[in-house]
Design goal:
Layout (H helix, E strand, L loop, with lengths): L1 H13 L19 H17 L3 H9 L2 H11 L16 H6 L16 H20 L4 H9 L3 H6 L17 H14 L3 H5 L1 H5 L2 H7 L5 H14 L7 H6 L2 H9 L4 H15 L4 H11 L1 H9 L68 H44 L5 H25 L2 E2 L16 E2 L3 H15 L3 H9 L3 H5 L8 H15 L7 H13 L2 H7 L6 H18 L1
Antiparallel strand pairs: 1-2
GO cellular component, one term: cytoplasm
Keywords: Cytoplasm, Nucleus, Repeat
Subcellular location: Cytoplasm; Nucleus
Length: about 575
């Protein structure tokens, strides 16, 4: 409700004739007027309000926020007309000739004037607001394009040099980030991608910003490239032609999780439906050993291992992980009240603990222990929060890397790429890694007290994202040549580990499993019929028929229809 009341007030500030109540033209300490300050802050406030709310975005759009923001953005590129007022001097002749930019009149390098700074803040805020308004709805993206601001968004991506702080045709990093956010929102529109954005040359500034000195700008630019590299984008060839693949592969090795994730995501899009030479170049630049290492890593394996028992009086050390490099917000911990003798829950025993805060002054023993316990739990909880975020980051990176492998071995020339991947990564290694990805991990594996968990303890389920990615890869291998299918069916554990997935709650996992059966039982020609029969018998021995029969009446029509096809093929081969 508060947002609905606030949005009209903010949009009123966007109007050119707006003046803050009680504003004065003269301000102490060279501060800008309240009106100008409001125009700087209002667009950014609107962006934060509507960012995750489709209802508030609609409310703002109906109040004509987009045309007014578009006009504000355009006006930030208008020349600044300032009457040059000479510095006072008792000698009138000197007063008219003195230049405040003379070295003897300046302390340090010349900074940005108030007028330029104000324009840049308004530009940044308008870009943020346009990006937030166009996140979801195609109509709002079209409205932004119709207001003619796409060229201004592109111009907002021109970075500033150190010696050009007084010009309006270049932008500081904060404005570059806002411009990239607006461009990324617009690149979600297929029509804008094929018309307005390509006409304005959106790809060209990206090739510069992806190598910018600020890593946050690199991440933002890479996220735009990720959308520009989609298969339907006319700029995909331009990205390849601009030699972006080596840069993206280099960034994929970055220690910054966000940059690594966005780069792999962009490479995944580039690989889709590309020629085999492009796909092989991606593998070579990434390095097969690195690919194997990424997909081998277990995202559920906590980076913080128990190094020793900790007690209230102990001072064990802790190798805390780095903060979330993705820049994502984590939960803000409220102070927790503690009592003497209170213990940390048992699940926290999986992590090493430490006292990272200086002990309070011992004015009271009870107060000291309570404060000590509270601070200690805050430190541990913050550590766990970072650990959870690190796991989520690792999971996303691994998911996109597996999807990259999937795109490498699909489409025209897939059999050649399957052989290439077997050669570079290792056939047995790849199959073993895929099998391990499907294998649930016992909770006992993750540290904790050995005597608290039995060998029959519960397992941590494999994330659905990983299951989907792995089963897609298996689908494409099964769709390869007959010898690829034979290698797959002969693996001792991979297909066996897929059997429980036929009843997975996720419909995509279920339908993927059925597709594997279909691809393994379709004969390329008459010569492959005998091998198909052998594969069908192997699948039957694994219990596939029972799994397929259980899916005959699946609630999802796609699963049901694919199951009919798989059962028909199996029955024909087993007769």
């Amino acid at each position: 409700m508060f947002g609905y009341l606030l949005i009209p007030l903010l949009i009123r500030i966007f109007e050119k004739d707006y003046e803050a109540p009680g504003d004065v033209s003269i301000h102490e300490s060279a501060l800008i007027s309240t009106t100008l300050r409001a125009k700087e802050e209002a667009p950014a406030i609107l962006a934060s309000l509507v960012l995750d709310s489709r209802e508030l975005q609609k409310h703002a759009a109906e109040a004509e926020a987009i045309p007014k923001l578009s006009q504000m953005l355009k006006e930030t590129f208008s020349p600044i007309s300032e009457a040059a007022k000479p510095m006072w001097n008792s000698d009138k002749n000197l007063a008219t000739t003195s230049n405040p930019t003379q070295p003897e009149l300046c302390l340090g390098p010349r900074g940005c004037s108030h007028a330029v700074y104000h324009r840049m803040k308004v530009r940044e805020g308008a870009l943020k607001a346009l990006a937030a308004l166009s996140l979801f709805k195609e109509d709002y993206r079209r409205m932004i394009c119709d207001n003619g601001v796409v060229p201004y968004i592109i111009d907002s991506m021109k970075p500033c040099e150190e010696d050009s702080l007084e010009t309006l045709d270049c932008n500081p990093p904060s404005t570059l980030l806002a411009a990239c956010a607006a461009a990324r929102s617009l690149t979600r529109s297929v029509s804008a991608l094929r018309t307005n954005l390509i006409d304005a040359g959106v790809a060209t500034p990206m090739f510069t910003l992806i190598k910018f000195r600020d890593i946050a700008v690199q991440i933002a630019a890479t996220s735009v490239v990720c959308n520009l590299a989609m298969d339907f984008s006319p700029m995909k060839d331009a990205i390849i032609g601009a030699n972006m693949i080596p840069i993206l592969c280099e960034h994929s090795h970055s220690s910054n999780t966000s940059l690594r994730l966005e780069s792999i995501w962009a490479l995944k899009h580039i690989a889709y439906n590309s020629t085999n030479d492009i796909k092989m170049k991606i593998v070579e630049e990434l390095e097969p050993g690195w690919l194997k290492q990424v997909i081998c890593h277990d995202p559920g394996d906590p980076p913080i291992r128990r190094k020793g028992e900790d007690d209230m009086g102990g001072t064990s050390s802790l190798g805390m992980e780095a903060p979330n490099s993705a820049g994502e917000r984590v939960d803000i911990l409220n102070p927790m009240d503690g009592v003497e003798g209170e213990t940390i829950p048992g699940q926290d025993g999986d992590y090493s603990m430490t006292n990272t805060v200086v002990s309070p002054k011992p004015t009271s023993l009870d107060v000291s222990l309570i404060d000590y316990s509270r601070r200690r739990k805050l430190a541990v909880s913050g550590d766990l929060d970072q650990t959870k975020q690190a796991r989520r980051d690792d999971l996303q990176v691994q998911e996109q890397t597996l999807d990259l492998l999937r795109n490498l071995i699909c489409g025209v020339g897939a059999p050649e790429m399957i052989d290439y991947l077997f050669q570079e990564v290792g056939q047995n290694d790849l199959f073993n890694i895929l099998a391990d990805k499907l294998r649930p991990k016992p909770i006992a594996k993750y540290g904790g007290r050995k005597d608290s968990l039995s060998s029959s303890s519960k397992c941590i389920p494999v994330p659905t994202e990983i299951l989907c990615s792995v089963t897609y890869i298996v689908i494409h291998i099964a769709a390869g040549l007959p010898r690829h299918r034979q290698l797959l069916i002969q693996h001792p554990t991979l297909l066996k580990l897929m059997m429980p997935l036929f009843n997975n709650p996720d419909k995509q996992v279920r339908v993927n499993c059925v597709w594997v059966v279909i691809n393994l039982t379709i004969a390329d020609d008459q010569m492959d019929h005998a091998s198909c029969c052998e594969r069908a018998m192997k699948l039957e021995s694994l219990g596939v028929m029972e799994k397929l029969l259980s899916l005959e009446n699946d609630a999802e029509s796609d699963v049901k229809e694919r199951t009919k096809t798989a059962l028909s093929l199996m029955h024909a081969l087993l007769q």
